[in-house]
Write a structure and sequence with these properties.
Length: 362
């Protein structure tokens, strides 16, 4: 027997995965499927012929389209209550969250509304769970940010304390070295002019070269590195002053690339400079001879520098051999050059020149 069109329609409605419910123009239920029975807890015969309001919770009834003549006006398929949460009323009086799609049907027997009803309990629960987890995540995040802020401020103040302490230490070291330098100076002044007196002056200059490093360190904002251009100028002027050579007779030229050296490099460099500048002043320009002393510190390849002290004085004595000098000054320069891992080049004609090339940390 061929299945009639009406039967096909009923079979399709029955097999639909959603609850399917049809009402007539007066809002009376004329057709339901098994899903509707399951969703609302009524038997089919309890629903057919009843007003649709029986499935609508009390508080929504006044707004229900069936009560506003909305059903008759419906002309095209649309979701119901767009944006609002909808609930169905079950036989046991409980409510179930639902989503409803409405399709108007115009037939020879009159106008109907076919609605598909989906139970969204699980979807709502999942959405609420998601909201809850998101909220939890937000509060955890806020807590974490708060902890990071607190720790950052702790670390910042610890760092400030450390910097104040470092500055204080460099200041004290410099002051103590200054005291030692003054003690040597007092001793020196007790001696007659001559080699012992000169030796004490050299000694004083060496102590001052180190004191100056610490002075530059606490004056700068970086307590680990010495800004070299300023250091070299101060050092040269202190050596000039100590040797009593008039800056008018012997000029100083300083050419220092902008470079900051770590303390462990800065101290040997400072001592080398002190020795070489004092040598140039002491030996290069005898008998009131004038000239120029040039100090250069140039950056070479990344991580390497060249430090040079040259003068246009009388030059090194004939047969001068750096390796064989037994005098303290150049011995000290040799030891310090070794400490710096420096390659040393000496020229002694047309003035004297000492160049050290070594590695530095950038
Ligand atoms: N720039 C220079 N110009 C001329 N001669 C120099 C120069 N530098 C060094 N000399 C020579 O090299 C010698 C060794 O120098 P060195 O610094 O070792 O000893 P010093 O200066 O005589 O004594 P000190 O141990 O007090 O430094 C000097 O005595 C001097 O003859
Ligand atoms: Mg010397």
């Amino acid at each position: 027997m061929p299945v009639s069109e009406q039967n096909q329609f009923r079979l399709a409605i029955e097999a639909a995965p959603a609850g399917m419910l049809m009402v007539d123009h007066a809002g009376k239920i004329v057709l339901v499927n098994a899903q509707v029975e399951k969703l609302f807890g009524y038997r089919r015969d309890e629903l057919i012929g009843q007003p649709i309001e029986m499935l609508v919770p009390e508080r929504f009834r006044a707004n229900h389209p069936a009560s506003r003549g909305g059903l008759a006006n419906a002309t095209r398929a649309r979701p119901m209550g767009a944006g609002r949460e909808l609930f169905g009323l079950r036989a046991d009086g409980s409510e179930v969250p639902v989503e409803i799609g409405l399709s108007p049907l115009k037939t020879d027997e009159g106008d109907f509304i076919l609605s598909s009803i989906v139970d969204v309990t699980e979807r709502r629960r999942a959405a609420m769970e998601r909201e809850r987890l998101l909220g939890e995540l937000r509060s955890l995040n806020a807590e974490l940010e708060q902890r990071v802020r607190a720790r950052t401020s702790e670390l910042t103040s610890a760092l400030e304390e450390r910097e104040v302490l470092l500055q204080e230490i460099h200041h004290r070291v410099k002051n103590n070295l200054q005291v030692i330098s003054s003690l040597i100076n007092m001793q020196r002044r007790k001696l007659e002019a001559g080699p012992p007196r000169d030796a004490l002056q050299e000694c004083q200059l060496r102590v001052q070269a180190i004191a100056l490093i610490h002075e530059k360190l606490y004056q700068s904002k970086n307590y680990a590195r010495v800004a070299f251009p300023a250091y070299v100028r101060s050092l040269a002027s202190s050596v000039f002053h100590a040797t009593g050579v008039s800056p008018r007779a012997v000029q100083l030229e300083v050419e220092i690339d902008d470079l900051a050296l770590a303390v462990d490099r800065a101290i040997p460099c400072g001592l080398v400079l002190s020795e070489l500048i004092s040598n140039a002043l002491k030996h290069g320009f005898p008998d009131g001879r004038g000239g120029t002393i040039k100090v250069t510190l140039r950056k070479l390849d990344p991580g390497r520098v060249s430090l040079e002290v040259s003068d246009d004085g009388v030059g090194l004595p004939p047969h001068f051999d750096l390796e064989r000098t037994s005098t303290l000054g150049l011995q000290l320069v040799r030891t310090l050059a070794e400490q710096l891992g420096a390659k040393m080049t000496v020229r002694g004609v047309g003035g004297a020149s000492f160049e050290l090339e070594f590695a530095v940390e950038e």
